[in-house]
Amino acid sequence: MDVQGLQMTQNIPAPGVFKRNPPIAGEAEAIEAAKNGDAEAFSKLYALHKRRVYTLCLRMLGNVSEAEDMTQEAFLHLFRKIGSFRGESAFSTWLHRLTVNLVLMHLRKKGLNLVSLEETINPSEDDAPKRDFGARDLQLTGSVDRVALERAVASLPPGYRMVFVLHDVEGFEHNEIATMLECSTGNSKSQLHKARLKLRELLRQPEQSTQPAGFNEVAV
Amino acid sequence: MTDSNFPDFDTMTPADFEKYLPDFFANGDGHVSTDPRLQTFLKNNPDCAALVRDLEAIADQARSLFEPTEPSDAVWTGIQDKLKLLGPEDDDLAIPQTV
User: Fold this and answer.
1) pLDDT for A77-113, tens place per residue?
2) Given A40, A51, A189, which is nearest B70 (Cβ)?
3) ipTM exceeds 0.90, yes or no
4) For A95, A129, A190, B24, which has the most beta carbons within 10 A of its beta carbon?
5) Cβ of A168 and B63 within 8 Å?
6) CA-to-CA distance for B39 and B33, rounded, in angstroms?
7) A interface mutation test: which of B24, B41, B66 has the most A CBs within 10 A?
8) Alpha helices, DSSP H only, in B27-72?
9) pTM, whole model, 2 decimals?
10) Which of the residue ranges A6-15, A69-78, A155-164, A204-213 would you say has the lowest mean pLDDT?
């Protein structure tokens, strides 16, 4: 597995992740045991973190098959690299960042120039959010249905989806996203705004138009 | 970005507002609708206020998308298979068999 370019840094906190990840009973012992080759301990770490890693992959990739492949890769990478975990941040934070980096590397290999900003700054005519305020829409204002939003997120262009998921779902700050995606903080802000505008537009359309091919696989 | 980087809040046009909206969201707690500097503008521009409310609703609801989802059993099976292929020469760690 090519791990070039992965940066397993532990010094950049992800506030949203810390908030969502209180210490897990028995995790510290399992980590130390897994470092020493304890197979059952590794199994326990998988059981503890599989949902979180898989959900992250699913949100970033919007595709069940790819998300499962990347979950597998993340844990294989963890298996190889757990000895380098020094405990300077929460294990869940470290694993979260490892997974994000793997997914980003995967997308780059696929040719998605992440913040492929070509794609997201200059999306195709169909993909770009409309630049009008539109009339007030009481259907959307005040509440957004979670399932409808999930569908809309899954149908976003990949670049928009990536920034939206990293910021609004995963809780990364713009400066962290800029580092991960190798873009400017201003670009991250701009992409997030365009992603939200596109989501608003999608949520105001009839339901079928927000349903991408194979979406049923993604709905959770 | 400080206030000096923004247009005059009292004379700002909807086009100005649209231009600076990403920065309005990025500053503070992300809730533009409660920004005291923008209250007069939003009151006088209901379409802009509606846009803000919609975008805030989307951002707020996004947090609920984090509910964990279970991967299929095939993922763990695949991990086990790949680890077997690694062999002891690749890694000294034992192969986990169960979850």
Assistant:
1) 999 999 999 888 889 889 988 999 999 889 888 876 5
2) A51
3) no
4) A95
5) yes
6) 7
7) B66
8) 39-44, 46-62
9) 0.70
10) A6-15
